Amino acid sequence: MSKIAYIGLPAHGHTNPTLPVVQELIQHGHDVLYYNAESFRTKVAPTGVDFRAYPEPMPTEREVAQAIRELIDASLLLSGLSEQLTPFMLAEIERERPDLILYDTTAMWGYLAARKYHIPHICSVTHFVLNGSQGVLGRGFVRFLWSAIPHLPKLIRWKRRMKQRYGSIVGGITEYADLNLVFTSKEFHPANIFIDGRWRGRFRFVGPSIKASTRDKSDFPFEQLNGERLVYISLGTINNLDLGFYRAAFAAFADYPAQFILSVGKNTDIAQLGEIPANFIVRPYVPQLEILQRVDAFITHGGMNSVHEGLYYGVPEVVVPHQLEQLLNAKRVAATGASVVLGEQYPYGRVTAAELREELNKVLADSSYRQHASQMGETLKAAGGYLQAVAEIEGFLETEYRVQSTALQVLSAE
At CA 327, angle to CA 325 and CA 333, rounded to 5? Predict the structure, then answer.
């Protein structure tokens, strides 16, 4: 069996899909080292990995979440992390010498360590591949380019420093590998000239990685569900401090003929929300996978994990994106006919109570939204999920082993 190092980013959306994968790899007999911020230890360690914490200081979950709201801010954060973490990662990989490095798309320090020590590597892609998908964003991508101009000198200086230290292996903020595991289905991914062009065959669509046992445990009062129509509302782990949105939801649905489950996140003071309508159940955290199997609609921020999980269980969605990547997700779900989109104009995520009510009415009244969600969900299930991801990883390892064995035989013959 092999020693595998996973090198990640302290962000829940990038971490959650990897947990069933590494747990399955361990069950297959592999040794897995898992690198992430100390704040993610309790989330990751139960999978059985050998958890290794990045050196401090590391950005908090909230700081990462804020940076991800704007692509240029994310680029600046990630470039800074690459300078901080690359020396640490090089020392770790030199000592551990894993057989394979599995790295997050944004973890340039993992890519550089793999290239430096000529270790086979696979890229974990937990979002749409943006290269080649920019056109889908329209004016949003143009706005990103315009906002990036003042920061270009800083990024140019960063790349110059990195090349001076590490040579020609330094690329950009995101670097792909010979094999890239994309955690969605080919049918759900936007048309992409990058994937379908010269990189054809290097991207494998393995579907969302969903396994309830790897999620945080949470008690939920299922006995309080009264049999009415059920709607779930969540802004995920990034935007869950949007008190204005929650109050708009209360105003929109206080007298609505349905029951609502609202997940507000561990950092929201529920007391600050004011009076909670009688038809709402509000919790800091809920067992999302169990909830989604019961609901009639899902009002979501459009994070990739949430979008996938709603579709996986055939739930029509009202998507309220709060940043550019979520806008891309939102547009794609709407294009499949499984959702409507609100708050898509910059600054994203601003909606009124009247708009929320109108769009939920639309989704609940038209059965085609659920039909399209179910159809897309079937493509996500058919892609294979974490089991397919493990099969791809082990197939890659076997191929690499054969190549190395052949090379050794040739050298011995000489």
Answer: 110
Q: Which pLDDT belongs to residue 61?
A: 75
Give the span between the Cα atoms of 105 and 29, in whole angstroms: 26
3-state secondary structure of 4: strand
Cα atoms in the 13 Å half-sphere on the side-chain side of 399: 11
**What tokens appear for 122 in the block?**
């696979």
Closest CA to 265 of 307, 330, 218, 328: 218
The upper half-sphere exposure of residue 368, i.e. CA atoms within 13 Å in the direction of its Cβ, equals 7
pTM for the complete prediction? 0.91
Do you find a cis peptide bond into 287, omega within 30 degrees of 0? Answer: no
Low-confidence residues of the chain: pLDDT under 50: 408-411
Compute the distance between CA of residue 356 and CA of residue 343 in angstroms, rounded to an integer.
10
Cα–Cα nearest to 380, from 209, 215, 132: 209
Q: What integer pLDDT is reported at residue 414 of this predicted model? A: 53
Burial of 223 (0-12, 13-18, 19+ CB in 10 A): exposed
Cα–Cα nearest to 309, from 47, 12, 25: 12
- Domains in the chain with CATH codes: 3-208+383-413 (3.40.50.2000), 216-380 (3.40.50.2000)
Q: Which residues contact 55 (CB under 8 A, 6 or more apart)?
A: 84, 85, 88
